[in-house]
């Protein structure tokens, strides 16, 4: 028994050393923004660039994605940014950076619209810098060439219904407004709590599905463009899509965790498809989401649980030749997160990555920031399963072992950006407390 165990440990050690040596040979040091040009060259003419993050609260992930996003827009003509955020709040950002009539007056007021927990994901100084740059970039462009900013997520059920009703009061027909109010009234008794609706729909058959599906079909069939905000009808339709899929998400969530995840990621993929269609056949898309969404699920243990994600679905829809996914990770540092859902945010320590994990091997190859281009044909990185850290908005460092996703890295991503020591995100309005 001991001999077999020692042999196994020796084999693992040899594989790890081989990976470390490969990283040393292939990685590019990341010391200045110009070093990101290696990624631009690798991206080439691809139309879908998916930018991940290992946490929702690391400053470097946001600043590096911002710098890469700027380069993609300036040098390759990318059309819009789509993020893991709510459609209504992100659409206010879109209206601001495109200078639509009656948009909010400044970046801070726009970002304060992200008022649903976890607010810090988008209401932070790092996103503020991106929004400022987008507005400046768009300033002298004709409306059809201005770069947009949109949310793909599914959580804004009640906010989306509010936005639909507001839009239809100004632009809609009496029939459309009646459909919207019927949907709103159906959900109104659940006190804006998705879980309350989910329990009622899943166990008592009190569903609002018919109402929101009718509303979506009506808005899609009769979309109209308006000169003062050419995307107003698109926004109403996307809000209706949120309502349809949020209804499905909350109804499923109380019974099936894996299926509710799939509903969410399929919704984000469908929202992305409609946005790309709206921007035309030459549209080029930048997506900001967590690694667990943009890294191909088929290269992780998610597949065994019957789960899909945006990275997998976009690759399947558009072909791997037109999609480039970049994962981001860190060896150690600090992060903004909370100990439980809805609790106050705090700055937490991210401990050194566990031995044998992807992050630890990157650190062992060089204790500095670096970029590694990946090829799925690689005989080691395209086959070996490694633990890869994932931290959400809820984080408990004491239970660190459970934060690692078994991954075949060269099949999950096309490239990986490693930040050796990272720092917490800077929220706009939330006091940070070190714990």
UniProtKB/TrEMBL annotation:
This is Erythromycin esterase-like protein. The lineage of its organism: Bacteria, Bacillati, Bacillota, Bacilli, Bacillales. InterPro entries: Emycin_Estase (IPR007815), Hydrolase/PRTase-associated (IPR052036), UCP036794_erythomycin (IPR014622). It comes from Paenibacillus aceris. Gene3D superfamilies: Biosynthetic Protein domain (1.20.1440.30), EreA-like (biosynthetic domain) (3.40.1660.10), EreA-like, domain 2 (3.30.1870.10). Coiled coil: none annotated. It comes from the Bacteria. It holds the Pfam family Erythro_esteras.
